[in-house]
Amino acid sequence: MQHNLFIYNTLSRKKELFEAINPPFVGMYVCGPTVYSDVHLGNCRTFLAFDLIYRYLQVLGYKVRYVRNITDAGHLEGDGDEGEDKISKKALLAKVEPMEIVQTYSNGFHNIMQQFNALPPSIEPTATGHIIEQIELVKTILENNLAYIVNGSVYFDVDKYTLTQNYGILNNRKLEDMLTNTRDLGGQNEKRGKLDFALWINAKPQHLMQWPSPWGMGFPGWHLECSAMSNKYLGQQFDIHGGGMDLSATHHTNEIAQNVAVCGKSPANYWVHTNMLTVNGQKMSKSLGNSFLPQELFSGEHPLLDKGYSPMVVKFFMYQAHYRSTLDFSNDALNASEKGFKKLMAAYSLLSKLNTSEVNQVDVEDWQSKCYAAMNDDFNSPILIAELFDAVRIINSVNDGTLSIDIQNLQLLKQTLQLFIEQVLGIDVDFEGDNNTAQLMDFIVDLRNDAKQNKNFATSDKIRYGLQQLGFEIKDGKDGAVWAKK
Question: Going from the N-terminus, what domains does the chain have, and what CATH number goes with each?
Answer without folding.
Answer: 21-274 (3.40.50.620), 277-432 (1.10.730), 437-485 (no CATH)
